[in-house]
Amino acid sequence: MNSRKVVNLFLKTLAIGGLVGLITSFFVNVEGVYTDNLQPFNFLGLIGVMLFFIGHGLLYSAVSQTGFFAYLYVNRLGLSIFRSFWPTVQFVLIAFITFDLIYFPYKASDGEVSLIWFILMAAGLLLYGYMIAKIKAKETKKHAFIPAFFFMVVFTVVEWVPALRIGLIGVDFSIIMVITLLVCNTYQLLVLHRLNQADGTPRKGKK
């Protein structure tokens, strides 16, 4: 990709993150901030709250983009080091990260949250990552499935969990963050090959 397309991808992903952060906040309604400005109606307060959540979406989008470019580097590095064993290594890392996503948050909750909820959360992420990876493989090549699945699971967790561990965000904001990360990660993953094709890279099945 040339620099113009990189900047275009950055700005579009940023805009998507801001929009998703705002839309998700409508459903989460963190600490009743929307209802507080609707009853009684406070126009300036409502605009301020919306800008606040757009800002959070932009921040999470920036985290997603940092993770995406790190993934591109890690994938190249993994191929050069592990070669034919790289897919196996990725599956091991997926299993490890999935365990991490279940065990450590459950341990941090001191049993206040049932283990089944953390298992369902991890299962939902795996299922979503699997679906997106299948789409990526269908639109490109079969061997793209494992790297795509690896990115959607491992890098989403790597981008999301540290903020939870150090207590930077609460439950409501964690929901906004993970949804924004998933949407931005999905967009970047699925649009990358289209940008490469526009640069003259052969399409699936063509030399």
Automatic annotation (TrEMBL):
<feature type="transmembrane region" description="Helical">
    <location>
        <begin position="115"/>
        <end position="132"/>
    </location>
</feature>
<dbReference type="InterPro" id="IPR024164">
    <property type="entry name" value="KinB-signalling_activ"/>
</dbReference>
<feature type="transmembrane region" description="Helical">
    <location>
        <begin position="9"/>
        <end position="28"/>
    </location>
</feature>
<dbReference type="Pfam" id="PF14089">
    <property type="entry name" value="KbaA"/>
</dbReference>
<feature type="transmembrane region" description="Helical">
    <location>
        <begin position="144"/>
        <end position="161"/>
    </location>
</feature>
<keyword id="KW-0472">Membrane</keyword>
<feature type="transmembrane region" description="Helical">
    <location>
        <begin position="40"/>
        <end position="63"/>
    </location>
</feature>
<protein>
    <submittedName>
        <fullName>KinB-signaling pathway activation protein</fullName>
    </submittedName>
</protein>
<dbReference type="GO" id="GO:0045881">
    <property type="term" value="P:positive regulation of sporulation resulting in formation of a cellular spore"/>
</dbReference>
<feature type="transmembrane region" description="Helical">
    <location>
        <begin position="84"/>
        <end position="103"/>
    </location>
</feature>
<keyword id="KW-0812">Transmembrane</keyword>
<keyword id="KW-1133">Transmembrane helix</keyword>
<feature type="transmembrane region" description="Helical">
    <location>
        <begin position="167"/>
        <end position="187"/>
    </location>
</feature>
